[in-house]
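Hi W., the zinc ion complex you wanted:
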Amino acid sequence: MAELIGVIGGSGFYSLLDEPEQRSVETPYGSPSDALTVGALGGRDVAFVPRHGAGHRYPPHRVPYRANLWALRSLGVRQVLAPCAVGGLSHDVAPGDLVVPDQLVDRTSRRVPSYVETGAVHLPFADPYCPGVSQALLAADPGVRAGGAMVVIEGPRFSTRAESQWYAAAGGTLINMTGAPEAALAREQRLCYASLALVTDMDAGAEAGAGVGMEQVVALFRANLERLSGLLRRAVSALPDPAGCSCSTWADGVDLTYPVPGDTP
Ligand SMILES: [Zn+2]
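Structure:
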């Protein structure tokens, strides 16, 4: 099976791929957010899944995260780039910044967090993002900021001012609603995964104003689509060989109790 690079992102990314071809994939976890689009980007073959589906039909707490990762893996994907929109919690970041986070705080509470439904499989997750994919993203644009903890909330509402200040005081740099359980599910599927966060606004507790509005988020994402596209193109062409990465080797010798497509027993 030819190796594909996976991208999970906003629907604006459809237009990036040359010779796009739609693939409908069914999974043991239901349908992914939408049909996957396979095409060429930066000299590599890429499989793209729009995280929220056509017309943004799945809000963050309803995204079929398990089906999305399983579907990518079943097409031959081993490395995933996951652009997302985030709020800033720390004044180290400002709207318009691109950040490759290196830590995650999962504050979601009502999502299916794992493929594990039986048996003793405990994912090593101290460092939630793939070092190789993170490095390729950072090297693709000298303006991208390295590191920071991304707090993931259940949503779909934004934080109160007190919640936001609490997350900031606890050391959070960024806040969003989709980074979990996506990153953990990727690793359970033995996929290399890294996030590329675009800061669209400062979260409620980090500024004195009225707090976040959806229009602000969408406008900033549109304004940065071109920079984001160029960055992804360069990162995809510079990705290292995933063979031997700890994102996959953690499961060597582990009796996984869930299906991992293409896995060699
Ligand atoms: Zn990796």
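The helical segments are 65-74, 131-139, 161-169, 179-188, 214-223, 225-237, 246-249.

W.
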